[in-house]
Design goal:
single chain, 273 residues, five-stranded mixed sheet, 12 strands, 42% helix
Length: 273
């Protein structure tokens, strides 16, 4: 799969974190709110899915895909929404959201309540790997979204999702291993994990955790004819993450540029009535 177009779009989302990109102030706006375990991200697109502005904030308001701090989540989304509104001079009124595969209706509603509490009408709810495929456009294969707290997997056949599953494992587990190895607090371990100069060192330490994640992937795709696995989610940003997974599952494994921003972008692309 050629990621050239995908990587360009993600690069634009990354750019929109720091500058507001050109847009028609009269046209329809698409908003995506991604309540992640480690970060809350809000992405704003134009009607043609071109990034305009994005905001993100570190947060610990979600655990294993569930909102555990409703007030904190609401405050963060309100801050990010207001920042984007100040940047574009318009009020945001609707959004799409995403939840891990298999999330109950009750837990999905909590995500909705967070958005609604800040004045956003939720017009679409999508599971995270399916949101990612709005960007990747995989016709056949498996999309694996490894976030901070959960690993979501979707099997795609002929462009349609035929199976989804979610497991409670993710980047948090990697950070816990690093915290134990270095005898530091969790927050410091998070910074070590993201330090580009220490990626090879980190990979050596957390390889068993990645191998465990790979074994989960292998188990869930074993009954399907899968010839490629596509990784997204912030945890996959670790250098050579895909190589460890590929070696374990024996199937071609790929990831785009900055896999962290794929799902937030895909969520916003779903914001159409």
């Amino acid at each position: 799969m050629d990621f050239t177009e995908v990587d360009y779009k993600i690069d634009q989302v990354e750019k929109s974190l720091y500058e507001t990109l050109p847009f028609d102030p009269k046209e329809e706006l698409l908003v995506g709110v991604d309540l992640g375990t480690a970060y809350v991200v809000v992405v704003l697109l134009d009607k043609n899915n071109n990034p305009i502005a994005s905001e993100m904030e570190y947060a610990q308001v979600v655990k294993d895909g569930l909102v555990v701090d409703y007030i904190g989540a609401t405050q963060i989304v309100r801050r990010l929404k207001e920042k984007i509104e100040a940047r574009i001079g318009r009020t945001l009124t609707k959004t799409a959201i995403a939840v891990p595969p298999g999330t109950s209706e009750k837990d999905s509603k909590t995500h909705c309540y967070v958005a609604e509490a800040v004045g956003l009408e939720v017009v679409a709810i999508v599971d995270e790997p399916t949101a990612a495929n709005n960007v990747l456009k995989v016709k056949n294969g498996a999309i694996v979204d490894i976030g901070g707290g959960t690993t979501g997997l979707s099997i795609i056949k002929n462009g349609e999702v035929i199976h989804t599953v979610d497991e409670a494992t993710g980047g948090t587990h990697i950070s816990l291993v690093l915290a134990g190895n270095y005898h530091v607090k969790f927050e410091e371990a998070e910074e070590i994990k993201k330090d580009s100069s220490r990626q090879k060192e980190v990979l050596t330490i957390v390889r068993p955790v990645i191998q465990k994640m790979a074994s989960i992937i292998k188990k869930h795709i074993s009954n399907y004819d899968i010839d490629a696995v596509y990784l997204v989610g912030g945890t996959c940003c670790l250098e050579s993450f895909e190589d460890v997974v590929e070696k374990e599952i024996g199937i071609s494994t790929k990831k785009p540029f900055n896999p962290f921003l794929v799902t937030p972008l895909g969520i916003a692309m779903n914001c159409k009535k």
